[in-house]
Specification:
By secondary structure, the protein is α+β, with helices and mostly antiparallel strands. Helix content is 17%, strand content 38%. The strands form 2 sheets. The protein has a 13-stranded antiparallel β-sheet. The chain has a two-stranded antiparallel sheet with strand order 1-15. A hairpin with a 6-residue loop joins strand 5 and strand 6 (81-86). The two termini are 28 Å apart.
């Protein structure tokens, strides 16, 4: 998953580190919303962070191509973050998946790797590098996940835990931040609420493995 065409891992890793204000973040909720019609339907999550302002996660954005599906978080003091899955498989998706995607925060591409065959939650977690920092995103279960920014010599790191609760119109995302976060941390953590993360869970990983095995067996018959 290289991100933008022509941008390799070494290109991204050599970009200068960012320096932003680290902020203690008050826990907050995003509420489910939807609007529009069948041809211009929008849905996702909206809410207010006392420190970062009004936040809107649209998942997905109205399609501009049948082979592209995008979820996006923007608003307040956050940089815009987008997660786009692209390819023939995208046409039938309800949300972007972890197959053939590009992740951006602001004007930067986030370099992502994962172990499709990981046995534990930690082994299946996404490993990411964004603007000089290392992150991991692990599933707690099918309704929750945690993003961790690794500690370094200048900062003890941060964790952002996002969990969906409620049903129907009462659905909400509860966001809790441990440590002092930057705006990019929060944007990166929230955009994954608009992504199909099932492959990071144990059951989802098993299903994905069976799907791959069936595909390979079918291909071998020709």
């Amino acid at each position: 998953m290289r991100g933008e065409e022509g941008r390799t891992a070494s290109t991204i890793e050599n970009e200068p580190d960012r320096r932003e204000m680290h902020t203690q973040v008050t826990p907050f909720d995003l509420r489910a919303w939807q609007e529009g019609n069948r041809h211009d339907h929008r849905a996702g999550w909206k809410g207010v962070s006392p420190e970062f302002g009004e936040i809107t996660l649209t998942c997905p954005l109205p399609r501009t191509s049948p082979e592209s599906i995008v979820s996006e978080v923007r608003g307040g003091l956050l940089p815009t973050a987008s997660f786009e899955a692209r390819g023939a498989h995208a046409e039938g998706l309800r949300l972007p998946t972890l197959n053939r995607f590009t992740l951006r925060v602001g004007d930067r591409v986030v370099y992502v790797t994962r172990n499709r065959f990981g046995v534990t939650s930690e082994q299946r977690a996404l490993a990411m590098r964004y603007a000089g920092d290392h992150y991991r995103l692990a599933a707690l279960d099918k309704r929750g996940y945690v993003l961790t920014r690794a500690a370094d010599d200048e900062d003890p790191g941060v964790t952002i835990t996002v969990r969906e609760t409620g049903r129907g119109k009462g659905r909400r995302l509860s966001v809790h931040v441990g440590g002092r976060a930057e705006s990019g941390d929060l944007a990166l953590g929230l955009v994954f609420a608009g992504v199909d993360r099932s492959a990071l869970t144990r059951i989802g990983a098993v299903r994905a493995g069976l799907s791959r095995a069936t595909h390979f067996w079918t291909e071998a018959q020709y």
